[in-house]
Every structure is written in structure tokens, then in C-alpha cells.
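Changelog note: in this version the structure field was regenerated for every chain. One regenerated record is shown below for reference.
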Amino acid sequence: MNFTRWSARFPGTQRRAAARTEHAAAQAKRGEGAVPAARGSRTDPAAERSTPTADGHPADPTVTGTGTGTGPGRGTAATALPQPGTLTTVPSLDELSAREVLGRLPALVALVHGPEHRVAYVNDAYTAGFGTRTPGGPAHEALPELGELGLLPLLDQVQRSGKPRTAKNRTAPGGTSSYTVTCTPVAFPEPATADGTAEPAAPAPDAPHNGILIHLADVTDHAEAVERLRASERRQREAAVTLQRSLLPQELEQPDDLRVAATYQPGGTEAAVGGDWYDVITLGAGRTALVIGDVMGRGVRAAAVMGQLRTAVRAYARLDLPPHEVLQLLDGLAAEIDASQIATCVYAVHDPNEGLLAYASAGHLPILVRDEDGTVRRAADPTGPPLGTGGWLHSSGTIALGPGSTAVLYTDGLVERRGEDIDEGVAALERALAGAQGTPAVICDRLMRALGVDADHDDDVAVMVLQQPARTGSDAELFHNAALELLGGIEAAPRARAFAQGVLASWRFPVELCDLGVLAASELVANSLQHGTPPMRLRLRRTDRRLIIEVTDGDDHLPRRRRAEPADETGRGISIIATIASSWGSRRTPGGGKAVWCEFALPDKQS
């Protein structure tokens, strides 16, 4: 096949050749010098030497023809360098052999022809890469590597459409090299006559594209660099997610009266960590604190602020303060940590004796509660500004959480979507919660799926689900409450001891535990009678794991443990409680007053 003839028909070649011809004619007309034709011959050196230049000096000999051969129509190499100011010529593309051009390319080049993509030519680089290929065979047999690279369908597309196509980063057989492949349609000339007297005619500009030029550029280094970058990003992301998860509780505390589960889903594939967090804190006397928050922004700084806030919440929770006071303390701390970092937070306390969830919100989304009948309610205001803004007095609210109820605390990544109002997302969560059944862990998964949260989600998501079980049968026998109003003066003490003795015996506790419980109740009542004010109440509570004894009164002065001197007649009650009980504590109650409590761990499987 004559590659020289059809090489002039590469895209753009005819336009460039025509432009050179027009430019040469214009120069000749202006007398600016002569540009020889593409197939010119050497000019007469003597004539050139006799023709002075514009500055009066003899002209140097130049070459007007181009090419490297010596046959007809080809020039020879110049014998002298052109002087400044003389017009030089460049080779014409018509003079170049396509075989020579394609053969010298470092890229792999193959030329196929016809609907079966029969091999017409492969260059030396292709042979070095994939071995010798015999012309004439169809591509799926003669060029099996194209099939392994997934290029045969691409060749069909180029053949049908007549438009070039590119496939990036195709891995060669064996996985050692990667190529970016460009398939360009080309038009072959008509074949020569049988006797060989006629040369192949050049294809017309609008001739059908019956061939394809396949160009494979080796991008192995680039592909390896991309893979190294991706591996580095994966390692960084894994480290970031590990950091994030290490700042979250490794195992949630499980209260006696609640079932709790939580989940965290990092956002997208970025290496930056987020600031979503949650925690469950047992406060004693059967009460439980639940907290969820979100530090705005991403990155290690947001995670660091989140870790500090979570640690601070656990410390403030030990003070057993009302929810709004905890947020008040967090607000000041957040401003001190980093004034540029804004965080939202919900802090809630569950009291099984009251069947309520007391909460306070700092710019966070509302708690959702589904009752046993399937009705979903939103926790109403109060909601204050985010943490770190300062100058705001937070307040607490309550929402009922009775037996069989389920509550959901969540961050904005669960319900916020681009182009949608966030209330629409909260409404979608309400609908999903209304139909979600099962354990808290199952409900977490179902809510995440219902809201479309997957591995490619673009924001961090934290969800916490808590349930107040509706206990019946033998399970209900493990949970009991008993209370006594302490009326009168010092005569209330013996009544309290008798009440405690009877209740603990009816709950069939061991004798030793009954004696310890009666002693603890006596000390707490005596302390309240001496230092507190009415109204006073003794409350006994049994769960499946502990016995809780609590005394409330109207004085808000919290007792503290101190060392009593030998001559002191008082000051030993709290020390006795701390010695015999598993734990003890005190807190202020809403509306004034205080509660002092202690707990005893129960033996396994009380019946």
C-alpha cells in the first residue's frame, strides 16, 4: 500500500498545503522572493551568486527543494547555511512518508481496515510492545490485545460514527502497562488496477471512513502515580476515620431502663474527618444523660473541638445539672476553645420515675419521639443558638417518653440535602420513623437507608435511637417502685425504716442486702430530717441490676462527704452511705430542693 499518497490526506494536511501555496503566490506577486514548490529542484548556484540581495551583497546558495531522496521531484541537502535576512524553506508534509512518520513514533500505532478491522500496518513500537503482527488478519485474531483492552467495541463505534474516540487508562494484558488509546477514522485510497499501471487515487474529502488509526500512548507512569495517590488517600482516610471513631464512645453505656443504639457514618471519600459525636452517660439513681452534637466544618481541627466538647460534657454531666445549665457551661467552653468553631448540641436526661425526657438544645435539630401507637411527635422549643456564640440563656423543656416509646436524636447530615429545605428532610425522617420497627440498632439502620445515607453520602451522619421498653410478664417483675411521704418530725425515721424493711423483704432480697438497704434508708432520712425542709419523700426502686434508695426534700443545699472528728455528733451519715453502697450522689431538683441517693448492685438473677 502506498502510504505516501494517502498520508497527505491526514486531517488538516490539505488545508495547510493550500495555505502554503497561497502564501507563496502572494510573496511572488509582491517580489518578496520566491518560495519553491513542494517538489522543486536545486536552483542554479551561479545564478544565485550573481543575484545581489537587498543590501547589495551576493546571495548565498540555498536549497529550494526538500526531502531526503535523490529521485525525480526530490531536492538534495543544502550545502550552506542561510545568511540572516534570506528566506528559508521547510519540508512539505507531502514530501514525508507516512510509514517513516508512524514508524518513528514512540507510541504504539496500528492501522486497521474494513468492517472486520483487518490489520494493515503496525509500527515498530507496537511490535516491540506486543510482538510481531501479520497484516491482513481481523483485529480480534491478529490483535488479541485489543480485545483484552476492551477496544473492539470502540472500533465498531468509530467505524459507524466516523468520529474519533478515546479510552483512558486501559491496562494491558499482564497488568504491566497502561495506555490511553485514541481511535481515529481514516479513508483509504482506491486500490491500484490489476496490471499495476495506475497509482492508487487519493481519497476524496467526503469519502467514507473505511479504516481506523489506533494510537496507544503509554501512560504507565501516570497510572502508577494515580494509583499511589489513591492508595495514599485511602490510607489518610482510614487514619482520619480511625481518629474520628476513637473520639466517639467505643461502647455505649446501657442503662437499666433504656435500650440505646447509635451509629456513625463518615461522609463521602474525603480524608477530612467531621465533627459529629454522641454519648450516653449514666447519672445514677436510674437517670441517664444522652447527648448528640455536630461541630461545623471538617478536618482535624473540627474533630479536636468535638473531642474536647465530648470530654467536657461527661465532666459536666457528673455534676447532675439540669440540661440548660450543662449547655450554658458548654457554650462558654466552646468560645474559649475556638471562637471560630460553631457547634450544635442536644443534651437530654431521662428519668424513669417521671417517664420524661428533659432536654435543652443549642441550635440543634428537634428530638423525634414515636409513641407505642405509632404517633410521631417533635420536641418543641426551647432551642437556643449554637454553642460558642455566647450571650444567651438556655432553657430546658420536657417530652413524655412512656413505655413502648422510641426517641431519635440525629445530626443534620441525616436530613439535609442540597436544594431542599431542611424541614422536608425532618418530615421524611418522621415518616420513616413511623414505620420503623425493631431494636434500636435495627431502627438506626432502617432510618439510614430510608434517608438515602450510603458510603457515598457527602456529609457525616450520627444517629442515636433509644427505647423505653413496655415490660410485661416475668420481665416486669424485675422492676418495682415504692415511695413514702415523710410527714411529721423525728417520728418519721422509724416509719421510714419499717417501710424499707417491709418493701425490701417483699422484693425477696437476701437478708444481708435487706439490712444494708434499711441502714442506708435510715441514714438518708435522718440526714434529710436534720438538714432539709419539707416536703420529704423516701423512694425505693428496683431494676434488674440494682437497688436504688433516694430521699428528696425542699432544701437545695447539697450534702458533701467530710471527715467527722471523734467528738462530733453529726457528719458521719454520708460517709456511712459511701462505705456500704456501690455509689451515691446528690442533685438539685426542678423547682428547688434536692435529691440524695445511693445504689446497691444486685446479685445475679434475682427471682
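Spot check on this record: The CA atoms of residues 144 and 152 lie 10 Å apart. The two ends are 99 Å apart (CA to CA).
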